[in-house]
Design goal:
five-stranded mixed sheet, single chain, about 170 residues, globular, alpha/beta
């Protein structure tokens, strides 16, 4: 190959890897853990507004130990869902399901958890504004009220999920 093509090959390979990992999350299939929901009811937001009839959706991978001390929370971007990091979840992977119980949460606004697109009480532009702290608050309620956990090993997430992970560190160190 000409030298000019060779020089472009590493950049093209890097772009391909980035595109594969940045691609939208794949759809849920029957071989994956089932979707679960926690119906919180009305969720008070930091603005003072309320999301009516709020429910948060999630899936779990792996087994939670008796002490409930091996959970990792995976949060995602607003346009993503709990499949966003599937490539990292499994035996021997970064989110090792032989060691940890991975709780993958769908954020407010993504269309699985209550959002402007699926809220009967507050559709579209009637949906209240929410913040990263509101997302973390809803996730904290899921973990503490519903799953009865008071600690997680780590919080991980891509893109806006990273902002949520930082907020977890500030709000619930």
């Amino acid at each position: 190959l000409p030298r000019s093509v060779d020089a472009k090959a590493p950049a093209a390979a890097a772009l391909l890897v980035l595109m594969v990992h940045a691609a939208p999350a794949v759809a849920h299939n029957p071989n994956q853990p089932p979707h679960q929901q926690y119906r919180i009811g009305d969720l008070k937001l930091e603005s003072g507004e309320t999301i009516k009839d709020f429910q948060i959706t999630y899936v779990t991978h792996g087994t939670l130990n008796a002490q409930k001390s091996n959970a990792i929370l995976m949060v995602t971007a607003i346009s993503g869902n709990h499949h966003r990091l599937d490539f990292l979840i499994g035996p021997g992977r970064a989110l090792d399901t032989e060691r940890y119980c991975i709780v993958c949460v769908d954020p407010i606004g993504n269309g699985l958890t209550t959002s402007p697109s699926n809220s009967a009480a507050q559709p579209r532009m009637k949906f209240p504004r929410f913040t990263i702290r509101d997302m973390v608050h809803s996730q904290h309620r899921l973990l503490t009220d519903h799953l009865k956990m008071d600690h997680v090993v780590a919080v991980v997430g891509p893109s806006m999920g990273g902002m949520q992970a930082l907020q977890w560190g500030v709000t619930h160190p």
